[in-house]
Design a protein that fits this description.
With about 180 residues, the protein is mainly β. It is built from 3 helices and 12 strands. The strands form 3 sheets. Strands 3-2-6-9-10-5-4 form a 7-stranded antiparallel beta sheet. It has a 3-stranded antiparallel beta sheet with strand order 1-11-12, with no helix packed on it. The longest helix has 8 residues.
Length: about 180
């Protein structure tokens, strides 16, 4: 019996360990889509995140990443609490709005209200949490934010049902049966 051999590296996706290689591989990884919100001195801020992860059930911790060059970073950096919103497959426009630089994310077309601890809470989402930030860990040009859930609604959408919005191959997608 011969030992399996590792596949030979391809050179058309970038150099080993390069940003292009990482991007190329992660384009094939489907991720759930969330919007993170915070209050920045009385002004709501928010952004679309596909890096949301459950970290621990006890205590109830989650994590996500944010670039320090993001317009939302000062709000996340300076806030004690933030909102995490799980988007449904019908909310690709909302995900796109919160992903665009310079967009009026909290304009008249966005359904939101101040929630617990003054955190902006979006309406019509599948579920939402308000979390207390417990750590901001440096990671290159980003921070890994670790936060503890303190309030929320696991059925934020009035219908109480829905399928999650996914991000795959550089665009928003829905689950297929």
């Amino acid at each position: 019996m011969t030992a399996p051999t590792a596949p030979s590296p391809r050179s058309d996706t970038g150099l080993p360990g390069s940003p292009d290689l990482l991007r190329s591989v992660f384009r094939r990884h489907a991720a759930g889509v969330a919007v993170i919100t915070a209050d920045n001195g009385g002004r709501p801020v928010g952004f679309t995140a596909t890096s949301l992860n459950s970290v621990s059930a006890d205590p109830p911790l989650l994590s996500f990443t944010i670039g320090t060059g993001s317009s939302s970073w000062p709000g996340v950096r300076d806030s004690e609490y933030l909102g995490v919103h799980i988007l449904g497959e019908h909310q690709s426009d909302l995900a796109g709005l919160f992903a665009r630089n310079g967009a009026d994310r909290f304009g008249p077309a966005t359904d939101w209200a101040p929630g617990p601890y003054g955190v902006p809470v979006l309406g019509g989402v599948l579920a939402w949490l308000v979390c207390r930030i417990v750590a901001r860990v440096p990671a290159g040009a980003h921070r890994v934010v670790i936060a503890e859930a303190v309030a929320g609604d696991p059925a934020g959408d009035p219908a109480g049902e829905g399928r999650p919005l996914l991000y795959h191959q550089g665009r928003f997608n829905a689950l297929r049966d």
